[in-house]
Specification:
Layout lengths: L2 H12 L19 H10 L11 H17 L9 E5 L2 H22 L8 E5 L4 H9 L3 E5 L21 E7 L11 H15 L5 E4 L7 H4 L12 E7 L11 E5 L11 E5 L2 E5 L9 H38 L3 E3 L8 E6 L9 H10 L6 E3 L8 E6 L6 H19 L16
Parallel strand pairs: 2-3, 2-4, 4-5, 5-6
Antiparallel strand pairs: 1-7, 6-7, 8-9, 10-11, 11-13, 12-13
Helix pairs in contact: 2-8, 3-8, 8-10, 9-10
This protein binds pyridoxal-5'-phosphate (PLP).
């Protein structure tokens, strides 16, 4: 067929995806400035792995993770090491692979078995951690969250740690609720474990979203390389890094924290450049877009953007909290994300899933889902506020949620049950 015909067919079909700006479910950027769009269209042929063909992009990539190392208080940013990835999932895998290899090398030196590595994390981890454990043969040890311990906070940690523990994952911005895990408390619990047992357990911080919020909104909060037990940190450039989908970052506190045996060399300007990645070829354009965003906003610009996102999240949370059928699971005090629950009422004819469907009719995507193991009886609904959801648009959303709740409250019979839903974090 003619290229225009093929275009029209694909274009028309993709219209069914819905309006990205009304998607309050995703963490991923759906808006960038015109000049970023221009830069993107000039760079969509670049392959990030071809350091020799695209040495300028390679240099920009190095600049970017050095800036992140500095932002996250690496003791000596010049001696840190990092890389870009396709997203936080790949970045998490690289961080965890480094933990695994480091542990293997340590155990081999001690003449001990490396057959049964385990990794400790909250039951509310993002699905990439389940994938890592499945794909790379590591036993996941989930610490269940509860109403008393809404996040992994170091409580009971000694029951999970043993000599086969490759590390602990701390999440800065749990996907279910947006809450930070107190990395400092987790580190303190591990300090005590080291004192009692001699086991020195490192932390990887999954800061997919919080890595680009905390340095601007909670600069006093110590969660990063200021804590010596934190070996590596990942973030998603395409979340609060404000870049279109396809970009993640991982940084190690120093070159000594990334085992040499994982590094491959690719040719670069007649020389060699170290690389560590799961993919070979992948787009290089997002790397340039990240650099654009760093230059465009600077520290103060990021702070302003993230603060206005926080303001919108707080406004939405306050208004939803005022509606008497809802209670908030959390206020958006950490990242601009919050979740709420429906209060029990014997005569209620609807659930949060029904509300989610009704909002979808208005174009809004607002997921409802059960909390993880031990709390699966609790259903929550969540909003992720991102750059591009203005106060004005938020008010239109509030009009819609109020009118849809009014409709659901007026029902005379229960909504039919739908068991086909699924939602993966
Ligand atoms: C989004 C997210 C991930 C996965 O990141 P991608 O960039 O989508 O691959 C991992 N962990 C957390 C905490 C997240 O929020």
């Amino acid at each position: 067929m003619l290229p225009e015909t093929a275009y029209q067919i694909v274009h028309d079909e993709s219209m069914l995806d819905g309006n990205a700006r009304l998607n309050l479910a995703t963490f991923v950027s759906t808006w960038m400035d015109e000049s970023a769009n221009k830069l993107y269209s000039e760079a969509f042929d670049k392959n990030a792995i071809d350091k020799d063909e695209y040495p300028a992009t390679a240099r920009v990539e190095t600049n970017c993770w050095h800036m992140l190392a500095d932002l996250w208080h690496a003791p000596d940013p010049d001696n840190a090491i990092g890389c870009s990835t396709t997203g936080s999932s790949e970045a998490c895998m690289l961080g965890a692979l480094a933990l695994k290899r480091r542990w293997q090398e340590k155990m081999k030196k001690l003449g001990k078995s490396t057959a049964h590595p385990n990794l400790i994390m909250s039951s509310a981890v993002q699905v990439c951690w389940e994938k890592f454990c499945n794909y790379f043969d590591v036993e996941p040890r989930y610490v269940p969250i509860s109403l008393e311990h809404k996040v992994l906070d170091g409580y009971d940690l000694e029951k999970y740690v043993d000599e086969n523990t490759i590390g602990v994952i701390a999440i800065m911005g749990v996907t279910y609720t947006g809450m930070y895990e107190p990395v400092k408390d987790i580190a303190k619990a591990l300090d005590k474990i080291e004192k009692d047992t001699g086991l020195d357990i490192p932390i990887h911080v999954d800061a997919a979203s919080g890595g680009m919020i905390a340095p601007f909104i909670q600069p006093e909060l110590e969660w990063d390389f200021r804590i010596s037990r934190v070996y590596s940190i990942n973030t998603s450039g395409h979340k609060y890094g404000l870049v279109y989908p396809g970009l993640g970052w991982v940084v190690w506190r120093s070159t000594a924290h990334l085992p040499e045996s994982l590094i491959f060399k690719v040719s670069y300007l007649g020389g060699e450049m170290p690389t560590f990645a799961l993919n070979f070829s992948r787009p290089g354009a997002q790397i340039l877009l990240q650099y654009w965003a760093f230059l465009r906003y600077g520290y103060n610009g990021y702070k302003t953007v993230q603060q206005s996102t926080m303001d919108v999240a707080n406004h939405l949370a306050d208004e939803i909290n005022k509606m008497d059928m809802f209670t908030l699971w959390n206020h958006p005090t950490d990242i601009p994300v919050f979740a709420w629950m429906l209060k029990e009422s014997p005569n209620r004819k609807w659930t949060l899933y029904d509300l989610s469907d009704r909002l979808r009719m208005k174009g809004w995507q607002v997921p409802a889902y059960p909390m993880p193991i031990n709390l699966t009886d609790i259903t929550v609904q969540r909003i992720v506020v991102r750059n591009g959801l203005s106060m004005d648009l938020a008010d239109r959303f509030l009009d819609d949620i109020k009118s849809q709740v009014k409709y659901l409250e007026s029902l005379e019979h229960k909504m039919p049950k739908n068991n086909t839903r699924s939602f993966r974090h």
